[in-house]
Amino acid sequence: MRIISGVYKGRKIQAPKKLPVRPTTDMAKEALFNILNNQYYFDDISVLDLFSGTGNISYEFASRGTEQITAVDANYGCIKFINETSEAFKMPINTVKSDVFKFLENSKQQHTIIFADPPYNFEVSLFAKIPELVFKNKLLQAEGTLVVEHSKHTDLSHLEYYSYSKNYGGNAFSFFVKN
Q: How much is the pTM?
């Protein structure tokens, strides 16, 4: 995996093979950040990266100047890897080892962008729980966006607060906003 843009542009990060992850592809990540770049100044936002895995998305935000990043994952190896990598690059990433759903139930902090990359084999009911908890617990700031990554074969358009989706290869991003 590599960092697409920002101060760490071009840097390659090699995650241990034993981590239970599927990092967002460079093509999909570049497309996502092109969309977000047209809506936000990255140095003015707060980001919550759910099911953060290798930290791929968090590193991209940090490279682009985001100072407030929280990465949440239940896997100790993933959290350890993100901590080591962010420390090596001096990136401002705060990690939380937690079940994402428990974290969303208990969190009170609001964010500008919440990015969730759960396992693609989740049941639709588990995907639905993410926006449900985010909006019920008011975890997005005004003008904030929830982005959920999933397989292009998963349809989330029926969920409340759904705005639109974009497909990139086998990946899709669904965007949720409070109107």
A: 0.96
